[in-house]
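Title: Prediction job returns without error message
Component: structure pipeline
Severity: low
Priority: P3
Assignee: unassigned

Description:
Job completed but the reporter wants confirmation the result is attached to the right record. Sequence as submitted:
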Amino acid sequence: MEEFISCLQDAGCDKALISEVARLYERGDNGMVVRKLRRHRGVLMEELHGSQKKVDCLDYLLRKLTKIGKDGS
C-alpha cells in the first residue's frame, strides 16, 4: 500500500484524493479507483495542454525576435 500511495503522491494527487482512492482500493472497488484516477489524469492532461499553449506562444515570440535580430529590423 505504501508504494501505491507514493505513486499517487508522485502523480500529483492531493491528500483528499489519495485518502479516497486508498480507501476504495482497500475495499476492492477497483472500478471506482480507475474512474477516480482517469478523472485526475484528465485534469493533468488539461494542465499539460495549457502549458503547451504557453510554450508555443513563447516559441513564436522567440522566433520573431530572432528574425528581427537577424534582419536588423
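Comment from assignee: result matches the submitted record. The mean pLDDT is 94.
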